[in-house]
Specification:
The complex is a heterodimer of chains A (114) and B (275). Chain A is mainly α and 114 residues long. Chain A has helices at 2-15, 21-33, 35-54, 71-96, 104-107; one strand spanning 110-113. Classes of the chains: A mainly alpha (114), B mainly beta (275).
């Protein structure tokens, strides 16, 4: 098995298109003569196809990557969430918050001389 | 006293109180009462309903002209709601209000704040403060009439006693001395008293009355709930420091005060009779 480790490690980068042409050629040459490594490459491809199908794209040509979230978008989202939370907290406090809503002085006794 | 100086006539102060509810243009008296007493008499008022309690101590300060300053220290509690365990939650408040009014003029006290402009009904307490010559009458008196059982109104005259009647008995084993009645002035120098128990000899004591320390609780202090409490200081003759101190209300209840040895002093504190 130890002789295949190098080629098994090369399969993933090769499928991602990260290997040089020379490395790809060497891997292809090895796969012709090695059923074990060829089977491993086929398994990698089947896993990727299953994930693409689960993501809703059965005819994907490449492995679906997680969309990159831009920092600016993230900041806007965080601000919106914070404002919504503050607004909701304010509304809930006004409705069910601490005792004695309203002006304290207005609820206190007053002496009026007419 | 300076000859020719104007002598101030002792006067009595009277608080006339009426609890009024107004709804749909009609006015209805729920309760009324009257409290009067010497000039320094204060009015302790308690108004309770199912959802609110108002306690107040009103005092008056005569002005130089025909006016009087009415000061009220309020303690209010309002039912806010119920806890998750079903127990009532109360909101408590403490504050002071003053107003200067002519003698005899009615002042309205809105216990739960002035009514809103278009409120359907409102409730207030009318208080008029009058002054008249005492004419030798020194005891406070109270009267209250309830017209609606939904409301509970309590009116009390609050005066701090200047004198008290103290009945002393010395108990030694199975024997007791004859009761000795003393008319003591509060904060006056101590007086010597001799109590004889059978043939075993007499015991000399010095007794005096003092006012108690102010209560620790703010409510008790503000509403003067200790107004009729005095402290009997008992000491040996010739010693400045009292042997024992007994504090109690002037309510004719006999209280036992163990002295050193086998002696026990039984003291009854009461208000003095009218002069």
């Amino acid at each position: 098995m130890d002789g295949h480790d190098h080629w098994l490690r090369e399969i993933e980068p090769e499928l991602d298109g990260e290997l040089s042409l020379a490395a790809r050629a060497a891997l292809a040459r090895h796969l012709v003569s090695c059923a074990h490594c060829a089977g491993a490459r086929a398994s990698h491809l089947e896993v990727r196809a299953a994930l693409a199908s689960a993501a809703g794209d059965r005819h994907a040509r490449t492995f679906p990557q997680a969309p990159a979230v831009r920092t600016r978008t993230l900041a806007v989202l965080a601000t919106v969430v914070l404002l919504a939370g503050a607004g909701l907290g304010w509304a809930l406090h006004a409705r069910w918050g601490g005792p004695g809503g309203g002006d304290l002085e207005a609820s206190r006794a007053a002496i009026v001389v007419r | 006293m300076l000859l020719g100086a104007p002598q101030e006539t002792p006067s009595r102060v009277t608080y006339a109180i009426e609890v009024v509810r107004a709804a749909a243009g009609s006015r209805r008296s729920l309760a009324a009462g009257r409290v009067s007493g010497p000039q320094e008499t204060a009015l302790r008022l308690a108004l309770r309903s199912d959802s609110a309690e108002v306690e107040a101590l009103f005092t008056v300060e005569p002005g130089l002209d025909t006016t009087v300053t009415l000061a009220g220290r309020f303690f209010t509690r309002r039912l806010f709601g119920r806890s998750r365990r079903g127990l009532p939650l109360w909101e408590q408040d403490d504050y002071q209000r003053t107003a200067t009014i002519p003698w005899g003029r009615v002042a309205r006290v809105y216990p739960f704040g002035p009514p809103r402009r278009q409120a359907a009904d409102s409730l207030w307490i009318e208080i008029a403060v009058m002054r008249e010559p005492a004419g030798g009458e020194t005891r406070p008196d109270e009267a209250v009439t309830l017209a609606d059982s939904v409301l509970e109104l309590r009116l009390e005259a609050v005066t701090r006693p200047r004198r008290a009647v103290v009945v002393l008995t010395l108990v030694r084993g199975d024997s007791a001395s004859a009761p000795r009645t003393l008319d003591l002035v509060v904060e006056a120098p101590a007086r010597a008293v001799e109590l004889a128990v059978g043939a075993q000899g007499a015991r000399r004591l010095e007794v005096g009355l003092a006012r108690p320390e102010p209560p620790r609780a703010a409510r008790e202090r503000a509403l003067a709930l200790d107004a009729d409490v005095v402290c009997l200081r008992v000491g040996e003759p010739g010693t400045a420091r009292p042997l024992r101190v007994l504090c109690g209300r002037l309510n004719n209840v006999a209280r036992k005060l163990p002295l050193d040895g086998t002696d026990t002093l039984v003291a009854t504190l009461a208000r003095p009779g009218p002069r």
